[in-house]
Design brief:
GO terms for molecular function: RNA binding; RNA methyltransferase activity. Keywords: Methyltransferase, S-adenosyl-L-methionine, Transferase. With 257 residues, the chain is α/β, with parallel strands linked by helices. It has helices spanning 3-6, 18-30, 50-56, 60-64, 72-75, 99-112, 131-135, 154-172, 194-210, 222-232, 237-256; strands at 8-13, 35-39, 67-69, 81-85, 96-98, 118-122, 139-142. Strands 3-2-1-6-4-7-5 form a seven-stranded parallel β-sheet. The model has no long low-confidence stretch (mean pLDDT 92).
């Protein structure tokens, strides 16, 4: 696991639905995180509940390592920067930012602080975070959403937060953002050499002549334009082979006719 990803904790305060806990475990694992903490969940055995196990779906290792604590103060004890993720505006409270800004602030904090630990705190499914919960955090964080209906399921909100943090932390650490085959490129995907492309162009000219698309007596600029078109696309070995198969089929069809 990349070091900055180990410095982020996701905290669910008083979760009442085991399925959301399982979904949360899966959500953070897909983004490269592992630290999930529950504050006084409704069910003491929430981690063993069938819904939690089934919705974790491949992230049961994260579920097995979940920390359960009695209070938000305990969950935030090792944390140096906490974001209260909420949909409601607060008249009083810490400074406000959106989730993307929160990810950027978190990344900078991790880079600048030797013992940095960042937390994203989410409230109960029904009522969210209380004002007392928010007061324990250094920032209030919002997910920009439809103002007419901004209520996200807690696991969905956690997924969005984990995604924004992953993108920012991975970019800063030069961690690849796109999947890789982790091997050599397939030979057929390599660019075809000039002699192979020219052989195809000869075959192509023959095929379009056979089907009557090219009139050799009045060729105009058809073939030069087609050469430019195919040249711009840097044909691969497999593409040339495919197009030559098309040429052969065109010629056979024309001669049968």
């Amino acid at each position: 696991m990349n070091k900055p990803f180990e410095q982020v904790r996701f905290v669910m305060v008083h979760p009442s639905h085991p399925g959301n806990v399982g979904a949360a475990a899966r959500a953070i694992k897909t983004m490269g995180f592992h630290d999930l903490c529950l504050v006084a969940p409704r069910f003491p055995d929430v981690l063993e509940q069938p819904d939690a196990q089934s919705l974790a779906s491949g992230a049961t290792d994260v579920l097995a390592s979940v920390r359960i604590v009695p209070s938000l103060e305990d969950a935030l004890a090792p944390v140096t920067l906490a974001f209260a993720l909420t949909a409601r505006a607060r008249v009083l409270g810490p400074p406000v930012c959106d989730i993307r800004e929160a990810a950027q602030i978190s990344c900078q904090h991790i880079q600048d602080t030797s013992n940095a630990r960042v937390a994203v705190v989410l409230g109960t499914e029904r009522s969210g975070l209380t004002n007392d919960d928010v007061a324990l955090c250094q920032r209030v964080c919002h997910i920009p959403a439809n103002p007419e209906y901004s209520s996200l399921n807690v696991a969905q909100a956690l997924q969005l937060a984990a995604w924004e943090l992953r993108y920012t932390l991975a970019s800063a650490a030069s961690v690849p953002l796109l999947p890789s085959t982790e091997g050599q490129a397939h030979e057929g995907d390599q660019a075809a050499p000039g002699e192979k492309v020219q052989a195809f162009m000869t075959h192509w000219e023959q095929a379009i002549t056979e089907v009557g698309f090219l009139d050799p007596a009045h060729p105009k600029k058809l073939m030069p334009r087609m050469r430019h078109m195919f040249g711009r696309n840097a044909l691969s070995h497999d593409e040339v082979d495919m197009l030559r198969g098309l040429c052969t089929a065109m010629i056979k069809a024309a001669r049968k006719r």
